[in-house]
Amino acid sequence: MKRTSRISELREIISSEKKRGRKIALVPTMGFLHRGHLSLIEQAKQTDAFVVLSIFVNPLQFGPNEDLSRYPRDLERDAHLVEEAGVDVVFHPSVEEMYPRPMLTFVEVGELDRVLCGSSRPGHFRGVATVVSKLFNIVQPDMAFFGQKDYQQYLIIERMVKDLSLPIEICPVPIIREEDGLAMSSRNIYLTAEQRLEALVLSKSLNEAERSIHGGQRSAREIERQIREKITLESHGVIDYVEVRDAGSLSDVTDIQSPVLLALAVKFGTTRLIDNKVVEVEQNV
């Protein structure tokens, strides 16, 4: 496995592989990798492509009161994990390498970035779309892999690629969970033992909501109420949002008649966790 922190060197490595006829697969990450990230690598490896994994904690997507400075980092641990997983090259640039001068150019995906996490974290998805478009320009991959735990991010990147006619296939990978149901996240390490236990209410409330929809409940507001009630009764978590949205457009839903996204964000202490579930609707109910 090769490692580089320089854009020019990465481009040389990729150019050499492309001359050999290799397809290029990109797995963008912010590091402190877990089994969810490894599932992205597994999917990328199955394509027989040359796999590039980036590790970059992107300051553009953190707000002024968010956890940029305390976001977990362990490059050597990550490098060992991805070498075992079969990654071909790790790109771990510095902030100065990615942003050598103050940024004046940004990428925004309107409407999709104004709801859910975009509403509570203004500017977050502008930072995400900008750094991902920069990575796409540096790597020029044939395909890129994104986890569906960040479902809104996946939809935004997919729409950006379509709108800008980028020749890249966006490959979504399902959420990877702990055995008890907690969605894997680099931020889980910040949870106390009690908070970790209470956080299980997130996946439980989503599962109950799915059963309610499959049982015939079609009111989006009632589903949201059920989820909020369970979280409030069974934890000390502070709800940021609980929303039912159209799974394809993230538009508001009142009457559930097509696939929907059940999405939530809840803070346990200072740790903000997100989770979601896409629910198909059984029309014969």
Please give a quick description of this structure.
The chain has 285 residues and is of the alpha/beta class. It is 38% helix and 19% strand.
Distinctive features:
alpha/beta, six-stranded parallel β-sheet, 10 helices, 9 strands, 38% helix
Descriptive overview:
This protein has 285 residues and is of the alpha/beta class. 38% of the residues lie in helices and 19% in strands. It has helices spanning 7-19, 35-45, 75-85, 95-98, 117-120, 124-139, 151-163, 193-198, 200-214, 220-234, and strands at residues 2-4, 24-29, 50-55, 89-91, 143-147, 169-173, 238-246, 260-268, 271-279. It has a six-stranded parallel beta sheet, sandwiched between helices. β8 and β9 form a beta hairpin. α6 (124-139) crosses α7 and α9 packs antiparallel against α10 (220-234). It is globular and about 55 Å long. The protein starts with a strand and ends in a 6-residue tail after the last strand. The mean pLDDT is 96.
